[in-house]
Amino acid sequence: MKQVSIPQNIFKKYPGKRVAIVAGKVVGASYDAKVVYDQVKEKYPNKKISIFAVPRKEDKYLLV
After folding, report:
1. Which of 8, 29, 47, 64 has the most beta carbons within 10 angstroms of its beta carbon?
2. Residue 41: phi, psi to the nearest 5?
3. pLDDT tens sequence across 42-55
């Protein structure tokens, strides 16, 4: 499995949203993952799309 490069500026620019990443670039964002996926799939039908949930500053992490 190839690792996806996540741009660092998304943590400040898209907190709480789901972002779509294609070729290391953010190409869409929404609070709904299905909405952002459908929008980006229409623009980039033959590209691999990665969806990433951007945590908000107040979100807590659970380490197991």
Report:
1. 29
2. -60, -35
3. 999 999 999 989 98
